[in-house]
Amino acid sequence: MSDAAKTVPAVTRVGLVGLGEVGTILGRALAPQGLRWLGGWDVKLAHADTRDAVLARAQAAGIDQVGAAVGQIDQGTQQNAALVEEIAAAASSLRQQANELVAAVSRFRVS
């Protein structure tokens, strides 16, 4: 088996190499001997393995982004809940002060 033929399985095992890098590696390994011996199926396999790795990375990155977005939503929800509690406490205090004001003003008689 030629050195170039040994390179193809090694390249297909590299899961995280970009498509451009696979093409460069294959081009360097196979250029002296030409691509005649390499059937289209082998090239497609190399690209499919790399494509799957790229898609898996993209999917993982998308999942990470969704996780980060959910974290931000959760943080915003917690902040909103804290604000609602503060507003409820302020409304209760305002109600109490209004009742005290009504009681204080009720002592006065306007004729």
Task: Pick out its properties.
111 residues
Secondary-structure map:
Elements: H1 3-13, H2 19-30, H3 40-105
Which band does the percent of strand residues land in? under 5%
Looking at how many chains there are and whether they match, the oligomeric state comes to single chain
Fraction of residues in helix: over 70%
Largest sheet: none
Mean pLDDT: 74
Total strand segments: 0
Q: Between the first and last Cα atoms, what is the distance in angstroms? A: 115 Å
Shape: rod-shaped
| H/E element sequence | HHH
The secondary structure category is: mainly alpha
Question: In DSSP terms, counting alpha (H) and pi (I) runs of 4 or more, how many helices?
Answer: 3
> Using only CA atoms, what is the Rg?
35 Å
Number of domains: 1
Describe this protein's structure.
With 111 residues, the protein is mostly helical. The protein has one domain (3-105). The protein has helices spanning 3-13, 19-30, 40-105. The termini are far apart. The model is unreliable at 11-17 and 34-38 (pLDDT under 50).
